[in-house]
Specification:
By secondary structure, the chain is of the alpha+beta class. About 55% of the residues lie in helices and about 10% in strands.
Length: about 250
C-alpha cells in the first residue's frame, strides 16, 4: 500500500481522505495527495487521496475501488452489503428462504454458484491449454523426426567415414548419443525458456494476474522435454549403426 491510512473518522477539519485501488489510480493518473471531487446525489464532496492499495479481486470478499474515510457519506443514501457463510446446498437454500421471507426488499446472491461456474470455466480453460500443449509437443516431435529424416543421408556418410577411419560401433553410438542429448538439452532449455517468457507476458498484460511459476514443475517439464527429444533423436539414429560403410561411400561418390 502506498500512502497512509487515516487514524479515525473525519470530523470536518481539512479534506476527508479516500483509499483508491491501485489499477484505478493508474487509469485516473492520481496518487497520494491528489484531490478528487465527487458528485454524491447532487452534493459536491471534495476529497484527498490518502493511499493506494492492491486488491485481489479473485477472492470472494467485499471490496471496492474507492473507500471513503468514515464520517463523510453516513448521511447519504447507501446500500448495505453483508456476507454469510453456509456450508452445503440445502443450508444455503434454507438461509436464502428465511432472508427473503423476513426482508422482502433484500436481494440474495448465492456466490457459491458463481464460484462453481467460474471453477468450471477455469477447468475448461486448463483442459484446453493442456490439449494445446500436448498438440505442440506432438507437432515438435514430428518436426524433429522430419529434420532427422532430411539429414539421415548426411549422418550416414559421416558414420561411414568414421568407420573407415577405424571407429567402432561403441564409439559411433557414443557420438550419436551425445548429439541426441545435446539436441534434447538445447530444445528443452529454449522451449521452457520461451514458455516462461510467454506465460509471464500473458499473465501480466492479458490476464493481469501475478505470475508465479513452480520451480518443481519447470524442472520436471525441462527434464521431460530433454529426455523425450533425446529419445526420439536416438531412435531416429539407431539404423545408422548397422550400415556397412562401403555402399554408403559409393553412393556418395556417384
Amino acid at each position: 500500500m502506498a500512502g497512509g491510512w487515516w487514524s479515525g473518522p473525519w470530523r470536518g477539519g481539512g479534506l476527508p481522505g479516500i483509499s483508491v485501488e491501485r489499477d484505478l489510480a493508474e487509469d485516473l493518473g492520481v496518487g497520494p495527495g491528489d484531490r478528487i471531487t465527487w458528485d454524491v446525489e447532487g452534493r459536491r464532496v471534495e476529497t484527498v487521496v490518502a493511499n493506494l492499495r492492491t486488491v485481489d479481486w479473485a477472492r470472494f470478499r467485499p471490496n471496492f475501488f474507492v473507500v471513503f474515510q468514515p464520517g463523510v457519506l453516513e448521511d447519504d443514501p447507501r446500500s448495505v452489503l453483508m456476507l454469510a457463510r453456509a456450508t452445503g446446498r440445502r443450508d444455503r437454500a434454507r438461509l436464502q428462504g428465511r432472508i427473503v421471507d423476513a426482508f422482502a426488499n433484500v436481494s440474495v446472491l448465492d456466490l457459491a454458484r458463481v464460484q462453481e461456474t467460474l471453477d468450471g470455466l477455469l477447468a475448461t480453460v486448463r483442459r484446453t491449454v493442456r490439449f494445446l500443449a500436448l498438440f505442440s509437443v506432438v507437432a515438435g516431435l514430428l518436426v524433429l523426426l522430419g529434420s532427422l529424416t532430411a539429414t539421415r543421408l548426411q549422418r550416414l556418410q559421416e558414420a561411414a567415414l568414421l568407420r573407415t577411419l577405424g571407429a567402432r560401433n561403441r564409439q559411433l553410438a557414443a557420438v550419436l548419443a551425445s548429439e541426441a542429448v545435446a539436441l534434447g538439452t538445447i530444445a528443452g532449455t529454449v522451449g521452457v525458456g520461451l514458455g516462461i517468457v510467454a506465460g509471464a507476458l500473458l499473465a501480466r498484460f492479458v490476464f493481469e494476474v501475478p505470475f508465479r511459476p513452480s520451480p518443481g514443475g519447470i524442472a520436471g517439464l525441462w527434464a521431460g522435454v530433454t529426455v523425450l527429444t533425446a529419445a526420439v533423436g536416438l531412435m531416429g539414429s539407431r539404423s545408422i549403426l548397422g550400415r556397412p560403410p562401403l555402399p554408403v561411400l559409393r553412393r556418395a561418390a556417384e
